[in-house]
């Protein structure tokens, strides 16, 4: 199992579509279960995910693929990459998104609107590097490419990491829970007691006797 492959499901999609590797080889390389890879091949799992080329990404060589296609028992090796650790800088404002990825942002916005409407627009703006105007256009279907926009997980198209996405979704869920609790408490205070809802009793003056 490899821990160095980015976007494992998207990588599995590419390997299934472009090689004759066995499911267990793809699963081993991408860190997935063989049944999950089979589900991807049958479009039961990860439907709509675009394949990511591991060769172009520098994680796999054509020679390794050839070895794997010739022998189903062969385990693919990840290409060793030189890693340079740079000091992390605190990010401010919206995330910068490479030009090649910017066309995918409406799909990610659509995914948020359909699957996590509780996430505020401001969080989406910072997470995937979009604008409030674009979010409104996708929401109102006034975007120039509305007919082609489909919900796609932002992690699978490289707009954010799974950890970043999970944190945003968790924060939004917690905020919604707090808001719902405050609303329920306010509603409870406005409810009338049983005494207040019962109408006042009407008394009938008894008729006097006439002699």
UniProtKB/TrEMBL annotation:
It holds the Pfam family TrcR. It comes from the Bacteria. Residues 189-211 are annotated as: Disordered. InterPro entries: TrcR (IPR010421). This is Cytoplasmic protein. It comes from Terricaulis silvestris.
């Amino acid at each position: 199992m490899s821990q160095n492959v980015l976007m494992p499901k998207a990588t599995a999609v590419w390997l299934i579509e472009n090689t004759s590797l066995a499911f267990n080889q793809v699963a081993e390389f991408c860190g997935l279960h063989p049944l999950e890879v089979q589900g991807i091949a049958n479009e039961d799992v990860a439907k709509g995910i675009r394949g990511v080329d591991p060769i172009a990404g520098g994680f796999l060589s054509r020679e390794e693929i050839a070895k794997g296609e010739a022998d189903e028992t062969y385990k693919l090796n990840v290409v060793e990459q030189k890693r340079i650790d740079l000091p992390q800088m605190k990010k401010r404002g919206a995330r910068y998104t490479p030009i090649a990825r910017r066309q995918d942002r409406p799909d990610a916005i659509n995914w948020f609107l359909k699957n996590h409407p509780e996430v505020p627009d401001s969080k989406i703006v910072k997470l995937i590097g979009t604008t409030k105007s674009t979010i409104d256009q996708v929401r109102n279907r006034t975007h120039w490419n509305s007919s082609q926009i489909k919900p796609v997980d932002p992690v699978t198209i490289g707009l954010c990491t799974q950890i970043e996405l999970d944190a945003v979704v968790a924060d939004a869920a917690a905020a919604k829970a707090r808001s719902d609790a405050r609303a329920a408490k306010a509603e409870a205070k406005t409810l009338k007691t049983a005494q207040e809802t019962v109408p006042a009793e009407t008394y009938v003056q008894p008729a006097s006797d006439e002699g």
